[in-house]
Structures are given as structure tokens and as C-alpha cells.
Amino acid sequence: MAMQRARGGNKRFLDGQLLVAMPGMTDPRFERAVIYLCAHSDEGAMGIRINQAVPQVTFGDILEKLEIVGTGHPGLPPAADAILVHNGGPVESGRGFVLHSADYVSEKSTLLIDEDLCLTATMEILRAIVAGAGPRRALLALGYAGWGPGQLENEIQQNGWLLCPAPADLVFDQSLDGKYERALAQIGVDPAMLSGEAGHA
Predict the structure, then answer these.
(1) Boundaries of every domain in the chain
(2) Among 6, 17, 169, 184, which is least packed, fewest CB within 10 Å?
(3) Which of 86-90, 148-152, 187-191 has the lowest mean pLDDT?
């Protein structure tokens, strides 16, 4: 399979933007979610939640489970050890996806989302990170959020989501507390002004 490029050039599609859940989001799995849209087309959409960590699981733990590093994570570079493991979404929650800077590209398996960000979902990138040859910035997500044809568009029309720009500094910010507010601030929205539907899980 050749390297793929997301369809961000077509303004109808929303690749490379953030979806920010409105306070009235009816699905509790996406309450206060900030999701980076990796792919969006007529066939549906796929994104990675970037503001919810998987509790008590480290990047080293994942590498150890996959037998990429030994018990106790010997030789794991500090930068790799600092990579956060995110709850990427409810679909395929046992599968890992690395959202990363565009300085690392695998010809066979990397999805080029825009000039700054890519998505790779192979063991190859994990080994590259351990060897110090991986991307400069990365996060690992377990699972993803997915929508069928027209489903995301319908949810946006029903005021389930707001769209925001997705600067890399925000995407990779390891301070997850407040990322929801920071995403909304980019479009001048104060979450308190959206609180009409707040309080409903």
C-alpha cells in the first residue's frame, strides 16, 4: 500500500481540524472531547481524541506488552518515555495509532494529513521511536472515533460539535487539563457561553 494523503485540500472535507464537543453532547463517551480529524470523505470520518489519557498506562508499558522493550523499559529514551497514551476513541480500542509530526514518514503506512501532522498505525514507528529515529513529536492513541457516511455532518448540523483549527502545539500539548477550553479559545468561544445545555450527561 502506497503512502496516502488525506483529502484536506478539498474544502468540503474537514481533515486536519479539531472537533470540539458541545456541552449538550448526548454520547457520554465524547463529553468534553477534543478530536483531531485524521480523515474525512464521502465515505465517513475518522479521528483521534487528544484530551483524554488512558489511566495508569504508559508508553513504555505498551512497548513492553508488544515485546519491543524488555521488562522495566531498559534503554527507552526519555523523550519516548514521555509520550502520553490517549484514549483515542471507542472503535478498535485495542489497536494503537500514532499521531505525529511530519518529520517521520513511512512510505507504506503513513497517512499524510497536512504539512505538519501524520498518522501511522504500525509497529515500525514504535520501533523507530525507541531507536531515536522516530518523529520529533508524537502521541499514542488506543482506539479511534469513527463516523459512517454523512453521520458526522449530521452531528455537526445538530450542534453536537464545533470546528476549530488544530495547531500542532495544541494537538501535542501534554497538559490535557484545559485543552478543551484552549481549543474553543482559538475561535473566540468561552465555554461558559455554551453552558445552556451543560449538566446533561
Answers:
(1) 4-197
(2) 169
(3) 187-191
Location of C-alpha cell 470540539 = 20
- The C-alpha atoms of residue 138 and residue 4 are separated, in whole angstroms, by 19
Residues 102 and 115 sit within 8 Å (Cβ to Cβ): yes
Look at residue 5 and tell me whether its pLDDT is greater than 70: no
- For residue 23, give the nearest of 32, 15, 34 by alpha carbon: 32
Question: For 107, which DSSP code?
Answer: T
Cβ–Cβ < 8 Å for 94, 81? no
Classified by CATH at the fold level, domain 4-197 comes out as VC0467-like (3.40.1740)
Burial of 57 (0-12, 13-18, 19+ CB in 10 A): middle
